[in-house]
Amino acid sequence: MLLPTPVILIIHQPRAAAQYATILDKTGAKVHAVTSFEEANELLSFLHPDLVLLTAHMQEGDGRLYCQQIRATLVHPRPVLVLLHSSDDVNERISCFRYGADDVLSENIDKSELAIRVLAHLRRRQEELSNPLTQLPGANMIRRMLEQCLVSDRPWAALSIDLNNLRVYNETYGDLAGDQLIKALGAILVDTVADNEFAGHIEADDFLVITSPERRIELAERICAQFNEIAKRFYPPDDIKRGYLVSTGRGGIRRRVPLMSIAIGIVSSHTRRFQSYVDVLTTSRDFRYAAKLSPGSSWAGDDSPAPDKARGESPSRSRILVVEPDGAMACLLQEILSLEGYTVEVTSSADDALNLARHHQPDLMLLESNLSDRRMDGWGLCRKVKGDKDLSNIWVVMVTSHPDQSLALESGADLYLPKPFDMPSLLSEVSLLLRSRQRLA
């Protein structure tokens, strides 16, 4: 797997700086050599070196004091500080460590030993900057990789990846189970990327992959397919059979949440010009959020088809069917929802509700379980609606005093809202559902 090229800054007298640069060029790092602390200060502000090799004896000052200055002024992650010292006196070398050097080497060190020691420090730094959960390159290495892409002549593409519904999964099975799922996603990325591609782990379930523009779609689809293949191993058989988890919100609200999937946002240097690594991350995440609007594991980017506009995206055009046997409550709901800009129809009959649903196709149904019809109660009506392929996209909110939320969700309701409820909570949930483009299967 590809990693960002390490950056080394050498601070030494002109002749020695050139010699050390020649030696360290062979390590594969990008080497910059300067001959004064003033020049070094100008580079440190934007170069972000992984390692600084400097001498203790500069004409303009003590290299030990400059180590101290770097430690005091540079924020994490600061570079590894390797100080070259001409003295073999133990006390002199100890003083170098006290001033802040990470390693002290002799000015007369063998060239091969110097290169090996520098490589060891760079390897250690890479380990420290890796995500502790997945051992993939962490946020700082991702930033370095993107910055190198931005100045490179080679075209590239970035895939921003995260898990859908991780919070509900953690609430149900615990954070340790969620960590195992994140590690599994990291392993999938390591398995799918080629030697000349990069995979990094920013934090939590936030990942980034860098590939070529030609491979971005193929790679996104492979990642989705592999995740779908393993995701079911992280659920008990009963939950897999049911096909959803239950999320508990404030006020006893329960909702059906789909099983875990992933969303991928894709950007490419072929399609737009980016100003900074932050611009890359922000834009790719925007496409990732668009991917979340599709059910299951999905990707979105400049090449993805524009998503169909969902019914009910605008409240002024949304239709709500209220099925409520309590006349006073039905009138109250109709008045309040109408004031919010919705088109509202009201009935107390399950048969009438089914006919209205078939002929007027509402976007959402507010349904009381205890209906006056003898042939069909609210549970039966919910099952009828969700079992009809022409009506199954209707959101069903079971607004009921029945205490068994599992009965509501098992009958197909998308949301269980226990009575009594406060009206702002109802309006908030209705708005969220109607603005969502995702439809549960």
Explain this structure:
It is built from 16 helices and 19 strands. The protein has helices spanning 14-25, 37-47, 63-73, 90-99, 111-128, 139-150, 166-173, 175-192, 216-231, 237-242, 277-291, 327-339, 350-360, 378-387, 405-410, 423-435, and strands at residues 7-11, 30-34, 51-55, 57-58, 61-62, 80-85, 103-106, 157-164, 198-203, 206-211, 244-248, 254-258, 261-268, 298-301, 319-323, 343-347, 364-367, 395-400, 415-418. The strands form 4 sheets. The protein has a 7-stranded mixed beta sheet with strand order 11-12-19-18-17-15-16, sandwiched between helices. Strands 2-1-3-6-7 form a 5-stranded parallel beta sheet, with helices on both faces. The protein has a 5-stranded mixed beta sheet with strand order 9-10-8-13-14, sandwiched between helices. The protein is elongated.
List strands and helices in order, with pairings:
Layout: E1 7-11, H1 14-25, E2 30-34, H2 37-47, E3 51-55, E4 57-58, E5 61-62, H3 63-73, E6 80-85, H4 90-99, E7 103-106, H5 111-128, H6 139-150, E8 157-164, H7 166-173, H8 175-192, E9 198-203, E10 206-211, H9 216-231, H10 237-242, E11 244-248, E12 254-258, E13 261-268, H11 277-291, E14 298-301, E15 319-323, H12 327-339, E16 343-347, H13 350-360, E17 364-367, H14 378-387, E18 395-400, H15 405-410, E19 415-418, H16 423-435
Parallel strand pairs: 1-2, 1-3, 3-6, 6-7, 13-14, 15-16, 15-17, 17-18, 18-19
Antiparallel strand pairs: 4-5, 8-10, 8-13, 9-10, 11-12, 12-19
Helix pairs in contact: 7-8, 8-9, 13-14
